[in-house]
Amino acid sequence: MSEAVTYELLHIDKNSGARRGVIHTPHGDIETPIFMPVGTQATVKSMTPEELKDEVNAQIILSNTYHLYLRPGHEIVKEAGGLHKFMNWNRPILTDSGGFQVFSLGDLRTISEDGVEFKSHLDGSRHFFSPEKVMEIEEALGADIIMSFDECCPYPSTYEYTKQSMERTTRWAIRCKEAHKNTENQALFGIIQGGFYEDLRKKSLDDLIALDFPGYAIGGISVRRA
Fold first, then answer.
1. Cα 113–Cα 176–Cα 213 angle in degrees, nearest 5
2. Less Cβ crowding at N or C end of the chain, within 10 Å?
């Protein structure tokens, strides 16, 4: 079975090792490196899809699983034909897992091995994200690239907590991969964690590579204090 998303390496800079390439997706190609505009709730604020294409030449847009789950709801987006039709965008889309947004809720969320229980920042209603639930949501949204559910540690965090968090992220990644079914149209990426500890990041990377994801993201760098 062919992968939904593939990477074609075009050039490696002999001095820096920087790479230039093309990511092939079901909704078109992405020339890398690339700036990816953020359309949190299925829209890039103050810009139309036509402006993003014609004036910015955006090749891919990021949308947010947490916010779309709360409003308007992933079921509504699915009924509308998925994010591409919902937002009138025929180019590639990436959805994050909601891990960072849940992390940023602070006292409004509780993390366990099963997942994260949290209160909506909109109305205080209670919700629960497990790796399986996040896969259900992201499959309904229908983006080309989707991210596995991860725990994003605050900065600073102790070595012990960061290690526990990193290992939980790996276990959640396994559950995400087992739950993800739409492999013909979506690529599920793993997320490297481990805080600012080099050995933990190396362990996270090695463990995720062993799971053979089609792509990987560097997580947990741009974070604030809890």
1. 125
2. N
Angle CA(224)–CA(166)–CA(184) in degrees, nearest 5? 100
**What is the 3 state secondary structure string of the chain?**
CCCCCEEEEEEECCCCCCEEEEEEECCEEEEECCCCCECCCCCCCCCCHHHHHHHHCCCCEEECHHHHHHCCCHHHHHHCCCHHHHCCCCCCEEECCCHHHHHHCHHHEEECCCCEEEECCCCCCEEEECHHHHHHHHHHHCCCEEECCCCCCCCCCCHHHHHHHHHHHHHHHHHHHHHCCCCCCCEEEEEECCCCCHHHHHHHHHHHHHCCCCCEEECCCCCCCC
Whole-number pLDDT of residue 69: 97
User: Is the pLDDT score of 1 beyond 50?
Assistant: no
pLDDT tens for 181-199 read 999 999 999 999 999 999 9
Question: pLDDT digit string (tens) for 84-103?
Answer: 999 999 999 999 999 888 87
Q: Is the dihedral of CA 34, 40, 41, 43 positive or negative?
A: negative
186: tokens are 């979506």
**Distances from the Cα of 49 to the Cα of 59, 79, 83, 108, 137, angstroms:** 11, 21, 13, 34, 23
* Cβ atoms within 10 Å, residue 67: 17
Residue range 78-83: mean pLDDT, rounded: 98
Do residues 74 and 68 lie in contact, with contact meaning Cβ atoms separated by under 8 Å? yes
The pLDDT mean for the chain works out to 95
Does residue 187 contact residue 3 with C-beta atoms inside 8 Å?
yes
